[in-house]
Amino acid sequence: MITNDKQKDDFIIFPFSDYLSESELLKLKINSNIVRFEKKDIIFKQNTRTSHVMFIKSGLVKIFKEGRNNKSIILKLGTPNHFLALISVFGEETFQYSGSAIEDTEILFIDISTFNEILEKNGKFASLILKLLSADNLYMFERIMSQNQKQLPGKIADIILYFSKQIYNTNNFEFPMSRTELAELAGTTKESLIRTLTEFKNDKIIDLDGKYVIIRSEEIIKTLSRIG
Predict the structure, then answer these.
(1) Residue 172 has pLDDT above 90, yes or no
(2) What is the pLDDT of residue 170?
(3) Buried b vs exposed e over 149-168: b needs ≥16 C-beta within 10 Å?
(4) Which of 55, 105, 189, 204 stands 20 to 30 A from 126 (CA)?
(5) What is the domain extent for residue 154?
(6) CATH number of the domain residue 25 falls in
(7) Do residue 52 and residue 96 come from a single domain?
(8) Are residues 118 and 181 in the same domain?
């Protein structure tokens, strides 16, 4: 972790300000601070107490569930302009999973009691947060279905599309994670991931140079994802 600054003026660019009154925005600014994290820093830890609502201002965050024998499952990546761990913040007193920075990241920490006070008084804003919570839950259901029902090519196609469409919005990107982490995200082994990526490359579905990926046949990738 790099710094912990009371940069209240920066909070005015909060993307959901249309849902908040000026007095509510001011209250949030007074009870918030920005923390900068370096790559691989832990932002919040599984089984520790929740105390703040977190919002990603910049960077990427790995959300992962720690299991037995030091094994982890990566649930998703948190991207800028999204809240972190809302399910845990409002569902439990402790975090049910962990979050770490994939790259240098800025997180806005909002005092949870202040946030809850605004939710109780502002139905429009509360409805927005409910929709975001529902979207998180629906995404988790899709991830479970993908990992349990799809064959290996479908799982890897899902990962490629995830980075292409949801993270970078381009067919030319760089994996921001190690092969081991990509395998944890896909729900497979590192060896299986590498083998399948190589097959995709040999079949000219993608170009692959280290972590750099170019999708050559988006249609095939989408078909593999769909049929599983």
Answers:
(1) yes
(2) 95
(3) ebebbbbbbbbbbbbbeeee
(4) 105
(5) 150-227
(6) 2.60.120.10
(7) yes
(8) no
Strands 172-174 and 42-44: unpaired
Q: Higher model confidence: residue 70 or residue 174?
A: 174
Kindly report, residue by residue over 84-114, the tens digit of the pLDDT.
888 777 777 888 889 999 999 999 999 999 9
**How many other CB atoms sit within 10 Å of the CB of residue 2?**
12
The count of domains in the chain is 2
Q: Pairing between strand 98-101 and 32-37?
A: unpaired
Examine the domain organization and report whether 189 and 78 are in the same domain: no
Tokens at 132, concatenated = 């975001």
Q: 202 with 108, same domain? A: no
Residue 7 has pLDDT above 50, yes or no: no
Task: Check which CATH number belongs to the domain holding 187 and give it.
Answer: 1.10.10.10
**Is 70 exceeded by the pLDDT of residue 1?**
no
| Residue 190 predicted with pLDDT over 60 | yes
Query: H or E element: which one contains 41?
Result: none
What is the length of the chain? Answer: 228
Whether residues 131 and 168 share a domain: the answer is no
What are the two backbone dihedrals, phi and then psi, of residue 89, each rounded to the nearest 5 degrees?
Answer: -60, -40
DSSP string, 116-152: HHHHHH-HHHHHHHHHHHHHHHHHHHHHHHHHHH--H
